[in-house]
């Protein structure tokens, strides 16, 4: 079995097909930007894109993602070739969003999926979409400002 992660075809050994995508990414592919938070899909720290849609990697099994393009935080800049950082990452820096930084990969992945699907979300749409991503530092206002910045600059 093979899966595609950040544009790279990765062979999956038979004994790893029933592990979570989160564990596969972190422990076997060594892509550690995707974080373990709660393990039950409630906090959003493990968010990745599956065919461009935000998904919790702690609740997704490797065997479930055959023929699905996986994008992690490490591959997000590949979605905007030649620009270095993805526009959401640039806005995160401009707005000074991160504090401890632990949740930020999941926040950025959720925000970028939202903006891909809806390039001009309202504040209510941003709040609704980001609602499932928890930030212990409480940087929610800065997160919303960063998302709004990307929408306005697009």
Automatic annotation (TrEMBL):
It comes from the Bacteria. InterPro entries: 2Fe-2S-bd, 2Fe-2S-bd_dom_sf, 2Fe-2S_ferredoxin-like_sf, 2Fe-2S_ferredoxin-type, 2Fe2S_fd_BS, Beta-grasp_dom_sf, Diverse_Oxidoreductases. The keyword Oxidoreductase applies. This is 2Fe-2S iron-sulfur cluster binding domain-containing protein. Signal peptide: none annotated. Keywords: 2Fe-2S, Iron, Iron-sulfur, Metal-binding, Oxidoreductase. Residues 1-76 form the 2Fe-2S ferredoxin-type domain. GO terms for molecular function: 2 iron, 2 sulfur cluster binding; metal ion binding; oxidoreductase activity.
């Amino acid at each position: 079995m093979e899966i595609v992660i950040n544009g790279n075809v990765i062979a999956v050994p038979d004994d790893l097909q029933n592990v979570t995508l989160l564990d596969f990414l972190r422990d076997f592919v060594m892509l550690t930007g995707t974080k373990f938070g709660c393990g039950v899909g409630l906090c959003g720290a493990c968010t990745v894109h599956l065919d461009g849609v935000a998904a919790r990697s702690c609740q997704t099994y490797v065997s479930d993602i055959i023929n699905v393009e996986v994008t992690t935080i490490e591959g997000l800049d590949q979605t905007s070739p030649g620009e270095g950082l993805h526009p959401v990452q640039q806005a995160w820096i401009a707005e000074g969003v991160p504090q401890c930084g632990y949740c930020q990969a999941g926040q950025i992945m959720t925000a970028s999926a939202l903006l891909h699907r809806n390039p001009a979300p309202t504040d209510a749409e941003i709040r609704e979409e980001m609602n499932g991503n928890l930030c212990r530092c409480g940087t929610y206002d800065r997160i919303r400002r960063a998302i709004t910045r990307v929408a306005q600059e697009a």
